[in-house]
Design goal:
The chain is of the alpha/beta class. It is built from 14 helices and 13 strands.
Length: about 425
Amino acid sequence: MGSSTSGTHGARETLSRRRFGAVAAAGALGALTLGGGRAVAAAPAGAAQTDFLGRPAVQMRGSWIATVANIDWPMSQGLSATEQKRQLLARLDEAVARRLNTVVFQVRPTADAMFPSPYEPWSEFLTGVQGQDPGWDPLGFAVREAHKRDLQLHAWFNPFRIRNDAKAEKLVADHPANVHPDWVVPYGGKIYYNPGIPEARAFIQDAILYAVRNYDIDAVHFDDYFYPYPVAGQEFADEAQYQQYGGNFATKADWRRDNIDRLIRELGLRIKEIKPHVQFGVSPFGVWRNAATDPVLGSATTAGAQTYDSLYADTRKWVREEWLDYICPQVYWHIGMTAADYQVLVPWWNDVVAGTNVNLYIGEALYKVGTAGQPSAWFDPAELSRHLTFCKDYPQVKGNIYFSAKLLPQDPLGAVSQLVADHYQRPALAPRI
């Protein structure tokens, strides 16, 4: 998350796109019982997405709770279970207080787990030691407590990252990366699973699907990390795998994109086979391709990174093929940004999603507000509120998600209070499939 511009339809799967949620009665809202037995209102199929006063009845309002490097939770390693629970409840209560309806909770930050997993070790971001049992189940607790508050819980998984540093010695002895060293690629001072190895991709899916089977999560969520962001002067060491598996592709780039396509398509189908109501969403870097790279389909941007070319993630294709339930591009730039203008990218994504059954949410850079070194627009407390006003003109935009959760109570420059007062005066229901 938090990328910058420099570093950062074919056959449809009927089962995976089926819309669930029967309506109990006609009118603006009907009743729907969700997983966990809680009953909330749901918009009837084909009904307007506003109430009788024209306010949003269904609108994504979310925040990311990042656990990698203890960004949002827990605030430090080695805290007691009681304190970890207290901090997590605070994050959920803060979302409710700001009239949000969804939390995106990171449960697999670095090839580890925020729940007891038979596939991967306990995360070191809990106790400070990878593999050490914290004495409780954060994901199970988070799901139950989120649902008590009528919040959706989207479980956020990072697929390929093993470590955010090069300290392989900190991996537990029986870590899958040690059991299968041929799956591992060091790159840019970090350690990754190689997306080009079919067995590694299958393992990653299995680890994620364990959580789908065993927890009442509302969605599986990926962020923007697929192949790693490029590091100048370094090459991702997958030539041997390209020679082994890439014979049908004209270039290594095409083969790499196919590897990520396979992960997305296969995982989406497998989620629906297990629990058809569980959503699958991706929050990619906000620029698919610049117009200079693709004059026909690209956006009028000049970003240094492009998901198609830099991360080998064809996010536009995933929408058009309807392999996802939602996409939430990280449009982490202000209105008027020269290289990547918010007013350019939101309409571009609106057009990409139009005509599909994929929901569009916009990722918002709350972390930039009032932050030293950011352009002057981010020192205007009304900037984020203007983003939501702008989005109202684009019918495919079904809401916004904010990075990140710890900033909701901090309310930098009063920007959170202003966008809530301007746009979230009443609660809204989170979209479902």
